[in-house]
Amino acid sequence: MVRIDFKRLRFLVIDDNAHMRRILRTLLHGFGAREVFEAEDGATGLDAFNNYVPDIVICDWAMPVFDGLELTQMIRQPGANGNPYVAIIMLTGHSEKKRVTAARDAGITEFLAKPISAKGLYERIVNIVVNPRPFIRTRTYFGPDRRRSNGSGYAGPERRKGGKADLIKHSTLLEKVRNPS
Amino acid sequence: MRSIKNSAAITTYGDHEVIRPENKLRKALTDAPPAPGEDDPVAQAERALADLSGEFGAWMDEECERLDGCRQAIVANGITQTAKTALFHAAHDIKGQAATLGFPAVAAIADSLCRLIEFTPQSDRIPLKLINQHVDAVRAVHREYARSDARDLAAQLDHKLRDVTDHFLIEENRGRPDIIEQITGAPPQAPA
Lengths: 181, 192
What we know:
Chain A is an alpha/beta fold. Helix content of chain A is about 35%, strand content about 20%. In chain A, the strands form two sheets. Chain A has a five-stranded parallel beta sheet with strand order 3-2-4-5-6, sandwiched between helices. A two-stranded antiparallel sheet of chain A has the order 7-8. The model of chain A is unreliable at about 165-180 (pLDDT under 50). In chain B, about 60% of the residues lie in helices and about 5% in strands. Chain B has helices at about 40-50, 55-75, 80-95, 105-120, 130-145, 150-170, 175-185, and strands spanning about 10, 15-20, 30. The mean pLDDT of chain B is about 90. Chains A and B meet through β1, α1, α5, β7 and α6 of A and β1, β2, β3, α1 and α2 of B.
């Protein structure tokens, strides 16, 4: 059976709250991780990201200097940093839909709402390792593919142009009524 | 410092590129059997957190003291941008951590304080009395958590505070239907 060897993963935890950093470190060590680095704000987090080159970044949203959203946007600048494809888990007390969408559009890989649980964190990490998503670059976005499935139930127009996207023809409800076949 | 070289397969379409970076995390996948006692990482992590839980009461004390300190700064100097941000972060941290630290009933009251700060358009109009009531409620519920009726008490306090806070926020956000929808969870009703 295939499993994850956490000893082979390097984590960077960025949170301004020392208690939350300790909780995350404890959980990661509990999973078996050995390399867990910490930073207490967005600026030192970016430095640590470039110095330690982590495999997975876990960051809080609300932090001093610059917040988790701004940090994500800085990491996702192609060419500006070591690894713009790094997996980022946004851990936050903000769970409103508007916030989740903003985090997704900034380029996070996974969203985890507080209160944190060992199971929730473990599932996000497994998903990152086992089901890596391709990255998408558009004029306004660079980050993991925001489409997590092929969207067979989606009835709206295809927004991506070119290649396979152009082959998907969207019929309006009126066209379907006129041409039921 | 580790190697930071990246390689990726890029496919270009009309208005976007699909990039498949080298999966460097594949190195963590193994089919080797786990060491004895390491077959359930989630249970191991939960045990590690339980071992740490002896410190949680003191941590929550610190978080409540921090919240009180932020309140005292506002009482002394008024609601400056810095003081407001500090109060919000202190309340937000309690909202996010209270359940993990073993005080879930405190989280809802801290959340109500976060909403009061976040959705009041003009900071200087946030009633100091309402800030005080929230901070005192957080501290009181935490202090009395060992009581058998602590959760009921917390629920009643939260209900009252949320009710007053929502009423205030709806008044302050007249003409901002998107905000009212976020506050109440429903679109504002048209005037009769």
